[in-house]
Each structure stands twice: as C-alpha cells, then as structure tokens.
Amino acid sequence: MCGIVGLFLKDASLQPSLGRLLSDMLVTMTDRGPDSAGIAIYADEHAGRSKFTIQSENAERDFQDLPNFLSKHLDRILDFRVNDTHAVVTLDQNVENKFSEVLTAFNPEIRIMSHGSSLEIYKEVGLPEQVTQRFHITQMSGRHGIGHTRMATESAVTTLGAHPFNTGVDQCLVHNGSLSNHNSLRRKLRREGILIETENDTEVGAAYLTWKIKNGASLGEALESSLKDLDGFFTFVVGTENGFGVVRDQIACKPAVMAETDQYVAFGSEYQALVDLPKIESAHVWEPEPATVYFWKH
Amino acid sequence: MLQFDLKKCGLRSLNSALQEQKEETNQTSWEVINPKGSHSIAVGIDAPIEVNIKGSTGYYCGGMNQQANITVKGSVGPGVAENMMSGKVVIEGDASQYAGATGQGGLLVIKGNASSRCGISMKGINIVVHGNIGHMSAFMAQSGNLIVCGDAGDALGDSLYEAKLFIRGSVKSLGTDCEQKEMRPEHMELLKQLLSEAECDAKPEEFKRYGSARKLYNFNIDNSDAY
User: B-chain residues within 8 Å CB-CB of A275?
Assistant: First the structure.
C-alpha cells in the first residue's frame, strides 16, 4: 500500500507549524505502511550556501569526528547540525562539488540523503510516529514538505529503501505503487552512469527522473515522460525548491486526494490525512486526474 | 434519534450497534458525527433504518447494505456501497473510485462527481450520479442501471454485459464492446422514475443509452489465429 502526504503553504504564518501539520498527516497514514517512514522538508535557504543531509548507522562515532575532518579538507563548513542518525551539513556553494568525495574519504558508509539549498530529508525504519519523534519533525518550520510511510513490496525494509528519494538538487520523490520494469530500467540507467544503490523500485523511478533532468528535461517534462517509460502503478509526489507536483499513472488505482484553501494545498493518500488541517471543512477537495501532471509553486 | 460520536465510541461499537438492528426495530433514526474519513462506516446493516453521517468518510462506507437509508453529508472514499443488496445510499458530495462496485440491488445516489470505475461489475444496483464519472466506469457491468447527468471518462462500459448506461453529457471514449443504443419508451419510463427517486431534475429525453454490443459473448472463429 504505502501512504503519502504533502503540504504546500501559501500562507507564511503557517510556516512554523509545517513540521507539526505534516507529521500529524503522516501518522494518520500509519495503517497504509508500518515499515519505515520519511519526511522531506523545505526550510530556509541562504544564497551561496548548500545543504547536505547525511545518515550514518553509527552516528555517535561518525558525527563526533566528521566536523573537524570536513573543516580540514573543505575549509568552508558553515554549520554541522546533528539530528539523531542524520546530520545537516551547510557549506559554501563553491565547495559543494568536493563534498561527496571528502565524505567518502572519511567513511564510505555514510550516505547522502539529500542535497540542495533548502531540502532536508529524514527517513528511518519504524512507524511514522516513532520516526517523526526521533527527528523532532514536529518542531520544524518550512514552506512545504512531503512525507511517506512504507509497506514494502519490492525490496527490503531498510533506511535506504525508505522514501523520500533525492532525485536532484532540491528535488525529491515519494511513491505509492509498484513499478514492474524496474530491473531492466535499473540496468539501463546504470549503463548511463546513474548511481542506484538498492534493489528498490522507487529508487529506479527517482533515478529515472534524475537522468531525464540531467539530459535537459524540466521536472515537468521528466514526469510526462515517466508516464510512457515506467510500467506499473504509481502515484508520485515530487518536491522541488519552489513547490510540489503530483502525477498518477493512467489506471490511477493508487488513491490520491487533494485539498486547497487560500492558506495551503495538501495531498493525502486518503482523506483521513487531511481532516485535521485548518479550515478543511471549507476546502476545495478533489481527486487528481490520471496521467496528468500537477504543480504548485510559491 | 440516536447520536453516535465516532471519535468517542469507535467504529466497532457503531457498526455492531447498527448490525444488531432487526426488521422490527424501534430505533429507526441514527446520526453519526465526527466520521473524519474513517473506513467501513455503517457496513453490513440489514434493517429499515435511517443513518445520517455528518461529514466525509473513507473506504467502503455503507458496504453490503440491506434495507437501510444511509446519507453522507460530505464526500466518500473508494468503494462506497460496495456490494449493496437493497436500500438507498445518498452521497451529498463526491465519491472516489469504484462507487457501487458489484452492487446487487438498491439505489446509490451521488450528488457530486464519481471518480474512476464507478459501477464496476455491478449486478443489479441502480446508480444515479448528478455530476461526472471517471474512466473505466461500468467495467464488466452485468445488470442494473447507471445514470450519469454529467460526462463520462474514458473506456465507458468496457467488456459490458447487460447493464444499461444512460449518459446525459459527453462520453470521452467507449470501452470494448460498448455501443450507443436506441432509447425506447420503457427506458424513458425507467429514467423518469430513477431520476425522481434520486431528486434529480434532469429530463429523460436529454440522455443517450449505451449497452453491450454482445460481440464478446461468443468466441469468434476468425480470431483463432491469435491463440
């Protein structure tokens, strides 16, 4: 099954509540997927800075020594914020190209969860309530965010198999459904030089978008072509620096419901995810059409 | 009237109370508050009672209904009135996918729009939608009537058996083996009656009828090369 939620704030006064609203929405979707959960949140950005969210299986040890190591080799580390098994590293944009290499030199087992100017991704194995609590998501503010709770069907229950997946700078993807041509597509994308780390079908979907964008497509164009090239069932929600998008396959059997007021646009796999949002009674509520790409931008 | 707060009492106690009602019950009027998108509200009732649900519901609302009149003052999730046997279910808002699926009797009224696969595999139910319906509606529908005052999406009536489909607006595309058919006096009469029961002021003469071309009923020997 899997459950997806998304919240895009039009009203800036709600920004301090984004983490709380999104966490509450995700917890209502627990029945749709109890294996692992994740949240992508788009918070403050500063010109000229880049952010990496990283994850370690041995965070206590790694995150103690890493800041010094990074400062020594990169020289322009502006902030290092530890959050449970994750940490957010903020650095000067001029050195972002070297970050991955330096991180690998420190410990190749530390994973980069997200890269961008405002995007942060937190995901772990466990129930949505546990995952949102351990990362203190409820206290986070931001402009928009997406979340996912997983019922694994295609691959193992691991942190790396959890959603959201980072698809490019400040871009991420969550998925409800299952892709059936992910093995052949994974081979093709690997031949094209795209890094795919797991046997997970959604990671292939994410890598497909990365590959399309790398070859010049806009995110909208990449999503349009996914309708042709991806075989299987999917409702995708994608996050970008400026907003979020939704697309469902032609059959559209994976549920999706949206609500819009003058304060926000919200997405949920079920209406239950939306019921506690402000003024939901007067919201315009509808189901996104199949094979149609939707976008909301700030 | 008995009022049931779903938030306080929980789904199980609501459904068991409703399912305990028998033919001769005196508790004929029920109101459910705080449904908040919960699944399986008011399923499996078999008594002539009225149930008013004040708000939107999740999956399978009013499923397997017999005799009861269920009204939802909001929208419903997937599979509303699934496999209904008799009675009436009225949705004042919109319905998600596969509304009235496999329904065998009774009347389902959707005052807003219904999404994809409305009336899939229906087996005798009557469905009246005041708005539009989505793609693959009435897929493999066997009997009963689907009346749509708005437009129908792609592949209407694909692999249809003997259900009758009446559409007032446009049809994006017809499914395999579904075709337009003539409107005869008995169809006008049927529409008049069902539209009135569904509190719909559309006129029977504005509708077109669609049904099975019956070409999939028997194997066509010309296709033997395909196997």
Answer: 36-37, 56
Domains of chain B, CATH where assigned: 2-214 (2.160.20.60)
Q: Does domain A3-40+127-297 have CATH number 2.30.130.10?
A: no
CA distance B136 to B162: 16
Looking at the predicted structure, is the pLDDT value of residue A47 above 90? no
Q: How far is CA B3 from CA A41, A219, B25, B87, in A?
A: 41, 50, 16, 21
Which one, of A67, A88, A100, A99, lies nearest residue A142 by Cα? A88
The predicted-structure confidence for B167-198, as pLDDT tens digits, reads as follows 999 999 999 999 999 999 999 999 999 999 99
Please tell me which residue in A2, A131, A137, A173 is annotated as part of the active site: A2
In the predicted model, is pLDDT for residue A45 greater than 90? no
Residue owning tokens 């949705």: B91
Amino acid residing at B209: R
Query: B77, A252: Cβ pair inside 8 Å?
Result: no
CB A261 within 8 A of CB A278: yes
Residue B83: left (phi > 0), alpha (psi -120 to 50), or beta?
left
Contact residues, chain A, for B36 at CB < 8 Å: 272, 275
Contact B58 A271 (CB under 8 A): yes
pTM for this prediction: 0.93
Per-residue model confidence (pLDDT) at position A154: 80
Number of Cβ within 10 Å of residue B157's Cβ equals 30
The CATH superfamily assigned to A46-117 is YebC, transcriptional regulation domain (3.30.70.980)
Spans of all domains in chain A:
3-40+127-297, 46-117
The answer to whether A25 and A5 are in contact (CB under 8 A) is: yes
- The answer to whether A274 contacts chain B (CB < 8 Å) is yes
CB contact under 8 Å between B37 and A255, yes or no, is no
Instruction: Please give the ipTM for the structure prediction.
Output: 0.90
Q: Is there a cis peptide before residue B204, judged by omega within 30 degrees of 0?
A: no
| pLDDT tens readout for residues B6-47 | 999 999 999 999 999 999 999 999 999 999 999 999 999 999
